[in-house]
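Appendix B, example 12.
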Amino acid sequence: MTSRERTLQQRDPLAAMVGRPISYLAAIGLPGYAGVSTWLNRDSIVHPALAAAAVLLVVVASVALIRLSSPLRAPFTSRALVLLVVLVLLASGISAVSMGANDSLLRDDWGGPVVGLLILALAPYRPAKELAVAGALSAIFVGVVVLVQAENFVAAYPPIMFVVTATVPVVALSSAAATFAHVLVRGLDRWDVQARLAFTELADERGRFIARSVQQDSVTILNQQVVPFLSELRDRGEVTVHSRRRAREIADAVRDSMVAAADRSWLDDLLDEVVAAAADPEAPRVALADPAALARTMTTAERTALRALIVAAHGHPSFDPARSGISIGAGPARCEVVVRVGIPAGDHAERSRLAPFIAVARVIFADLHVEHDSSALTLRFSYEQR
């Protein structure tokens, strides 16, 4: 399992989701542009079947763009990038062949703009380097296609002029995509550094707060149990069998309390907080099985993704803590997590409200798998042992 890539989708999943309408616009605009251009140049088409096939390939690429960029299928992979770019390049080549020797004007070819716009639409999903490489290779392909057609053009210009004109849209749009991706990710890197510094300061303050809280809890235990016992023992003036038994019971209770406090993780505190903040404070707490306290080994990003999912689940009216649970265990090489969210299968609206949080978790935990049954959603994923 590799680390997160330098993409907007993996560094800031919610920002990528906010920009998802761009993917829909591209999926509508690309086949629309290719179809209209083909129709306007229908008199120049020698092979109608090939022209129709070219437009169909653009439609297929557009549908694939919507499906592959879905947050529920995240992350968008380099294979998906290659698939989409190859589809539109193949479509542009077939479109050029469909006009044969009748392709007398460069402006009749829609391949370059379509390829460039597709790469631009992929900016939130892939690293800047991959977008730049895809643009460069696509420009070479478009240039070769135009170079082969150059002898059919009516304008008396050197072939290199046609190549430059045809590749400008690809180079410009892919460069814009790469720049956009690079600037955004670099900005997120700077924000991450500042956030880590702030988190370190807050962690120090939180550590002092926890120390004071533990001290106060210890003092409370002493005041409630130990001090009265010692006072009673002093007043009696002798140590009896009952006194010894009572001393052992108090010692065991104090030790158990301190061990329990030491074994608590941030996940225990979170589950207590969401119950306290719920409309029904009498509701049961979600069951947590983490005997080795592996939740402590999660990174900040992993904790944030799991925390957001838990809080969102508790916010649903149909959420049932009794049918929910979290278990964390050590696998052969990774920590394995199972999260069961008690939301009935019929509550599609409720389930859909969890989609953004599941999408974020899918980016953070690349092996996330979601299962559905009649009473709950079950999420299975893993993270590195540390």
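The CA atoms of residues 135 and 171 lie 6 Å apart. The chain has three domains: 8-193, 203-263, 266-384.
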